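re: ur question from yesterday

yeah so i grabbed the chain u mentioned. its 170 aa long if i counted rite. heres the sequnce exactly as i have it in my notes:
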Amino acid sequence: MKPTSLCLMSRAAPRPAGRVSVRIERGGALIAEFTASNLFVNAGLPALAALIAGDTSGQFASAVGFGSRAGAPTVGDVALSTPAYYKALDSHVENGTNPGPGSVQFNWSLTGTDTGALGIVIQELGLFANPTGVALPGANAPTLLLARKTIAPITFGTGMSLTGTWTLTF
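ran it thru and got these structure tokens back, copy pasting raw so excuse formatting
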């Protein structure tokens, strides 16, 4: 019989899990709707640790980004590719019955008033903290990527809107 190790340090720590839901409309008509898993990246782990320790200075999720890179997310991702557009999250819901205990849901949207996003071929979404206070909305990226998701290309145009949720579970 082989000896077994009881050392917990030899196991990989579980990562926060996430799901992104997107609804795409043009002229008020539904074009597409989907929900898929995302990847919580290594760059977001220090912010999560800081929040648990009580440091709330800019460490919280506050922005969503729409970028143009199609490559699959990796834990080493730190930014979205340009051209990109970033804006503040619309709202969030913690725990309760929706999205559930140990979860937080962030609500976001991209509408016709977001003229800086017009013409971008959106292939990736990012959830960001904004500890340096980058002005939003705009093309300047917040400095801390928490999670990333790639999607089928969407050329954002006049009359379109994207609405969605980003749910993280711990």
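noticed a couple things. The chain is about 5% helix and 45% strand. also The mean pLDDT is 88.
anyway ttyl
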